[in-house]
Amino acid sequence: MAGKLYGVGIGPGNPKLLTLKAKEVLEAADIIAVPVKAPGEESRALSIVQPAVDLTGKEIMPVVFTMEHSVSRREACRKQAAGQLMEKLDLGKNVAMIVLGDISVYSTFHLAFKYIREKGYITENIPGISAFSGGAALAQISLAEGNQNMMVLSSLKGTESLETALKVCDNLVVMKAGSSMVQIKEILKEQGLEDKTVVLSNIGMADEYIGPPEGDREYGYFTTLIIKKGGL
């Protein structure tokens, strides 16, 4: 009998924010699958789990998800990752794949999950605290109140989508914003939204930053903005 595949959201970075359900599933699984961008890469997700979960005797299996620009290469890599997971499931092993944040929000897990689900394997998804929910709690602000609406954007490739969203949304979350911060800051300044924006960068890391957008600061991949047009 084939094993079961779990997708486990482990939260935004603090091991104490791992849910009891996630801990239970990880400690019961035979194999912990760890997404990485390249072979040999250290996993931030694994470093978060290790202080909170007993991994004694478990196989830690890196699973590569390339970030190459080529769509065909990314697709081939995802199918290979799915095949790697299914090989373990076919041995009757229960596999838990860990991902940062919530399993349903821009999750690496779902890049392979659809292939595995189509093959009829038993699966279960364990939710986690999203990066923007955890960040809002750290900044002590709300994401939305009353009848306000909210939109989540990811990895801006241009400013048009941000400008359009700001026209129709009360509150806006921009994830993976590091590479677009120069353009974003210009828009925020033009629209008078600098003091209505919180930047959450590298939460849980040594260079963690929570505060207003700053002109001379360098922002990494793990940068999220919360923009509240009505004020923080």
Q: Mind explaining what this structure looks like?
A:
The chain is of the alpha/beta class and 232 residues long. It has helices at residues 20-28, 44-49, 71-90, 109-118, 131-139, 160-168, 181-190; strands spanning 5-9, 31-36, 59-64, 95-99, 123-126, 150-154, 171-175, 197-201, 209-211, 223-228. Strand 6, helix 6 and strand 7 form a beta-alpha-beta unit.
Provide a concise account of the structure shown.
The protein is an alpha/beta fold. The protein has helices at 20-28, 44-49, 71-90, 109-118, 131-139, 160-168, 181-190, and strands at 5-9, 31-36, 59-64, 95-99, 123-126, 150-154, 171-175, 197-201, 209-211, 223-228.
Helix content: 25-40%
Strand adjacency order, main sheet: 3-2-4-1-5
Q: What is the radius of gyration computed over CA atoms, rounded to a whole number of angstroms?
A: 19 Å
Distance from N terminus to C terminus (CA atoms, Å) equals 53 Å
The biggest sheet amounts to: 5 strands, parallel
- What would you call the structural class? alpha/beta
The low-confidence parts are none
Q: Give the integer mean of the pLDDT values.
A: 90
Envelope shape: elongated
SSE succession: EHEHEHEHEHEHEHEEE
> How many β-strand runs?
10
| Alpha plus pi helix count | 7
- What proportion of the residues form beta strands (DSSP E)? 15-25%
